[in-house]
């Protein structure tokens, strides 16, 4: 605040101009006071901001230290996890090596004791339908084992092929047999023939859907199938290879009773001829040939099933000469069997078909001997009896 000498103040007393000066001074003083107050407030705000910044700096430094600690912890955890992963990978590698060794061992055993048909698997107690390896031509003999579908509901062995799709479209062409479809099976011909020899019966389903598309007209055959010998066959059901016929022709219920097949009527709507080829000397179907489709309204489709074999072929009347020859002939059942020896004597032998060497642990007793309880050797196994 501006201070004036007393005498100057007194000198102004009663003077109008001096009163104005005093008022101006007082106003200026009040203005300065307000400015000072604002400055003090600003200083307080600045101090508060400084405190806030100081606290933020402390917090930032704390977080920086925490972040550094977390980084160290992360590095430790990362290093530990890498050690765990390396250890786990090593264990898994060892396990995979062990599994691979066991798989190779089982694969080798499978090649030795692979059953010849799905019927054999069923006899061994397998009840689940699925894909299995079988070896129709005999374990460790001929071609490698084949993978087939074992339908355990019907106890059937099904050899699949590359044309299993239902209702395959047939391309239009006019000449007889101009559209050819070779059939590639999941088995060699030798294995399929061995399978049929081991089975009681075999068949292959075939279906021809047609619209104005005949299988045959008069003496002209537009469609046929080739047997395994490469010979054309014109029958579409059963085993009668002498003439063109279908299932409806054999049962007498074709749409046109004067024709052997439904499709031969060339009806302008969809008809169908389906049947099962049961001639084991012709199976499997090697190729399909179609033709006679030259107009837009003529359409045809086909479905070819797999080679299906069921049951067991009758055993030969002459006894086998060993357990090995018995197994090669298709008998995979462990138990007592009649074996013919070189000297003409018949022996009752226990054949262990689950072993690679079936004859090494066989029990032999002379067939002409009295039937009695079989003794055991000191090891607890069945002993050999000669009388």
Automatic annotation (TrEMBL):
Which keywords annotate this record? Coiled coil
Q: This protein's superkingdom?
A: Eukaryota
Gene3D superfamilies named among the record's database cross-references: 2.60.120.1000
Q: Which residues form a coiled coil?
A: 53-87
What's this protein's name? Uncharacterized protein
Organism, scientific name? Darwinula stevensoni
């Amino acid at each position: 605040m501006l201070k004036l000498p007393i005498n100057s103040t007194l000198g102004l007393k009663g003077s109008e101009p001096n009163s104005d000066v005093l008022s101006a001074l007082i106003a200026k003083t009040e203005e300065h006071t307000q400015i000072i107050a604002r400055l003090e407030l600003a200083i307080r705000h600045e101090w508060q901001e400084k405190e806030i910044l100081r606290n933020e700096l402390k917090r930032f430094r704390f977080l920086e230290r925490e972040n550094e600690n977390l980084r160290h912890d992360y590095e430790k955890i990362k290093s530990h996890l890498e050690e765990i992963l390396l250890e786990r990978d090593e264990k898994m590698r060892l396990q995979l090596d062990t599994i691979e060794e066991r798989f190779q061992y089982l694969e080798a055993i499978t090649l030795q004791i692979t059953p010849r048909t799905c019927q054999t698997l069923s006899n061994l107690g397998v009840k689940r339908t699925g894909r299995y390896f079988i070896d129709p031509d005999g374990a460790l003999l001929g071609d490698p084992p084949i993978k087939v579908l074992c339908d355990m509901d019907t106890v059937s062995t099904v050899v699949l092929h590359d044309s299993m799709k239902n209702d395959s479209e047939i391309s239009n062409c006019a000449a007889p047999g101009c559209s050819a479809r070779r059939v590639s099976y999941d088995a060699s011909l030798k294995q399929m023939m061995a399978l049929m020899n081991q089975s009681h019966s075999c068949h292959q389903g075939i279906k021809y859907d047609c619209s104005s598309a005949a299988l045959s007209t008069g003496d002209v055959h537009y469609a046929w199938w080739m047997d395994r010998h490469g010979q054309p066959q014109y029958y579409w059901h059963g085993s009668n290879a002498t003439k063109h016929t279908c299932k409806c022709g054999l049962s007498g219920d074709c749409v046109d009773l004067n024709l052997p097949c439904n499709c031969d009527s060339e009806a302008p709507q969809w008809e169908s001829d389906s049947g099962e080829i049961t001639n084991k000397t012709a199976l499997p179907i090697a190729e399909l040939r179609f033709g006679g489709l030259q107009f837009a309204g003529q359409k045809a489709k086909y479905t070819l099933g797999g080679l299906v074999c069921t049951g067991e072929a009758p055993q030969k009347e002459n006894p086998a000469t060993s357990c090995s020859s018995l197994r090669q002939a298709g008998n995979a059942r462990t138990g007592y069997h009649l074996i013919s020896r070189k000297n003409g004597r018949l022996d009752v032998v226990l054949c262990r078909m689950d072993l690679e060497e079936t004859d090494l642990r066989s029990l032999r007793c002379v067939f002409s001997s009295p039937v009695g309880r079989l003794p055991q050797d000191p090891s607890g196994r069945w002993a050999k009896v000669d009388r």
